[in-house]
Amino acid sequence: MRLALSFLRLLPPEISHFIALHALKILYKANLIRFLFPHDNSSESFQFKGLTFKNRLGIAAGLDKNGDFLDSLGALGFGFIEVGTITPKPQPGNPKPRVFRFTDQEAIINRLGFNNKGVDYLVKRVKGREYNGVLGINIGANKDSIGQKRIDDYIECFRKVSTYADYITVNISSPNTPGLRSLHSKENFLPLFKAISHVREIENFLNPIFIKLSPDEHIDVISEITKAIKEFNFDGVITSNTTIDKSNLIFESKADLSGGLSGKPLLEKSNELLSLVHLREPELLKIGVGGVHNKESFDMKFEKGASLVQIYTSFIYHGPKIIKKLLN
Ligand SMILES: Cc1cc2nc3c(=O)[nH]c(=O)nc-3n(C[C@H](O)[C@H](O)[C@H](O)COP(=O)(O)O)c2cc1C
Questions:
Q1: pTM, whole model, 2 decimals?
Q2: What is the pLDDT of residue 34?
């Protein structure tokens, strides 16, 4: 396992991501996952709005954008899986290279820009899934959609995925889609939240809706948006997406570091946001994500108010064995 991870680290990040996930899929099809990565099911489950999370650890959005690896990721023992971010139309994302590893700091910078195969493709994948755990679907807008069209994009995705999603995440916090984070301001989130609320009613979607927040917003902006999340009867927040603040990262000054930072250097910042939201709106459910890399950082998320936790970057660096490490 250690050898396989070391080999993958020699390859460019997107290629190693592709190989690792396809290898996992082959192992799943050969029925080998449970022998190679055994997990016990003794972790305490968590109930929320009629959903049973078999444990409190999930995989964060972005790792399986199109739902291609749901069954194999599910077999590893995660308590829930979030796929996406998905947009109405397929889009290629930003030019490569656009994912950068900082191995010694267990960090990643990415500027992928919502590369995905489109919502219709994702719906086909989730319809045919064998995975029977909790499935979250994370929705967004296409890069070229602005104004009302941007809102329409979220609504189109919402309508198309609502039959298959145990929860829906509204992603307003990717730093790699120009202008997306402006949805944290009142004049922009109000029309979006109204539209989401309306489509929720029309589709009779009784499952949770979460809003995924940026860790780079001012405290007043966060207070205003979390108040609105509660007033619109949405169920919670995911704190947080990646940060554009690179002050916790050691790097060569010449490097082009545009994009979102994840992993260890994000822990403190995402925890601050989590604490703030918990203080302002204790009744909202919080999914803590950002920088979890060991048991201590995992437990810290719960101390700060999270009910559920997700990981992305530490799964890339440590592989499936991190799941057991965090849950034991
Ligand atoms: C390569 C990469 C792609 C990501 N893509 C998405 C995405 O499509 N949608 C989203 O909401 N978050 C995305 N994220 C953010 C993660 O879901 C997570 O919020 C963030 O990485 C912090 O968690 P971590 O420190 O455990 O990685 C992405 C992160 C990375 C590293």
A1: 0.96
A2: 83
